[in-house]
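Sharing a chain and its predicted structure for anyone who wants a worked example. Both blocks are below, sequence first, tokens second.
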Amino acid sequence: MYNRYDQVISEFVKQTTLKRIRIKTDPKATSDFAHANEYEGFVLEEDGLGNVVVYVPELGDELEVPFGDYTSCGDREEGENPHLDGLKQHIIADLIDSNDLDENDPEIENISVLSCIHQLHNHLNQKDVDDDQFLDILKGYFENE
């Protein structure tokens, strides 16, 4: 049941930059899918493969939603994420400053097209950036913000 607490949380979450999605399959339905409800939720975590953990205010809970069971509600244009874009530019600038990349390196485009923090983390991990180094990159970015 949608109570006052869930309503307050929902209003707060709507003011964040979390991606809002519509869940196509009712997570509560066990049968009669033709009459199932759709729910809107906010993406808390992405695995880079299309699966997400979503907070659904109407249910007052988090749930895992598999790839293909949701659509974007279109709050923002695809790819519009100022912090992620800024972080990618910060990383590219650091790599150029440290002479690990030159300004025409194709790796710049590889980093630029990544669409979420998880993809960025995985990409850098493949380039031998461990979790502690990634955390230092994040700290450096947010200290300069």
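Comments welcome. Residues 2 and 48 are 31 Å apart (CA to CA).
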